[in-house]
Design a protein that fits this description.
Helix content is 40%, strand content 23%. The chain is an alpha+beta fold and 295 residues long. It is elongated. It starts with a helix and ends with a strand.
Length: 295
């Protein structure tokens, strides 16, 4: 997977002065556009679109300082329709406008070319299983929250604290599918999974009932999410919350996907947590929608 991803990075370099079609990049990487965006963001720490923009403006910056061409010609070459648009984008990355940079020779910011390698650290292994599941329904309470990669997510904490315990008990009675009990479900997020982007968060249960029947039996204010049949990778971990769970999310994309013949597919992620008896570490089970890579 990483070798093909590096081929996609070469594709970016060859087309910095042309429109870059992510669907073409996905074909170069032999994966789906959805999985390419998620994998890149996890490995690079930034969305693919941001990397392309920074690489373009890095190369454009070198041409600005070289002083051989009019600024408008450089702007148009790298996809900007006017000098003003180019100047705004240039300043956002370099902290100085292109005209001033050319006049003063100001130092510019450089986005290095990225290449990816799999580094094995330690001797720990990831515990997982692959499950094929028929269609099911998520039923529960939903909020729109920002994505937080590390540390407590205050929006989720506030939402969970504001949910009546009696309502969760009523929901729990509807659970008839793995993972059982009240679970956390996330869906409808940006494929880049960039910090601060928003997603739907559910305190919910998994049921075989159809959405209409599920919501009619649920507490007032509940909503449903219909989930089609498909494959799931189920990961387990133990450790202090929320860090152990957040590290598990990171490791799924930076270690498991590059080493296994699967890719992520659109769909919700489901998290079941169980407080441990020692009061320090939680047991967590993460269900993630996957499909086998083609070819």
């Amino acid at each position: 997977m990483l070798e093909r991803l590096n081929e996609a990075m070469e594709h970016v370099e060859r087309h910095l002065d042309q429109p870059i079609d992510v669907a073409v990049m996905a074909r170069v990487a032999a994966t789906s556009e959805y999985h390419l965006r998620r994998m890149f963001s996890a490995l690079a720490g930034m969305p693919l679109s941001e990397y392309v923009r920074r690489r373009r403006l890095t190369v454009a910056g070198a041409e600005v300082l070289a002083g051989r061409e009019p600024l408008l010609d450089i702007a148009v070459r790298y996809g900007y329709g006017s000098s003003e648009a180019f100047a705004r984008a240039f300043r956002a990355v370099h902290g100085v406008g292109p005209g001033e940079a050319r006049r003063t020779g100001a130092p510019l910011v450089s986005q290095p070319r990225l290449s990816f390698r799999l580094t094995i650290e330690g001797s720990s292994s990831m515990r997982y299983r692959i499950v094929d599941r028929p269609a099911f329904t998520v039923v529960g309470f939903k909020a729109r929250v920002p994505l937080v990669h590390e540390g407590p997510n205050q929006a989720i904490v506030d939402f969970v604290r504001g949910t009546a315990p009696e309502a969760l008990e009523q929901l729990a009675e509807l659970s008839d599918q793995e993972p059982r009990g009240v679970v956390s479900v996330t869906d409808n997020g940006d494929p880049s999974a960039a910090e601060g982007t928003e997603l739907d968060y559910y305190q919910a249960v998994i049921t075989s009932a159809a959405p209409a029947a599920a919501v009619s039996a649920a507490p007032e204010g509940a909503t449903t999410l219909a989930v089609p049949a498909g494959g799931w990778a189920v990961f387990t971990t133990t450790g202090p919350a929320p860090h152990a769970i957040q590290y598990l999310w990171r490791d799924v994309f930076t270690e498991w996907f590059p080493s296994n013949p699967y890719r992520s597919r659109p769909g919700p992620a489901i998290l079941r947590t169980e407080p441990s008896t020692n009061g320090a570490d939680d047991e967590a089970e993460l269900w993630f929608p996957v499909e086998r890579e083609q070819g």
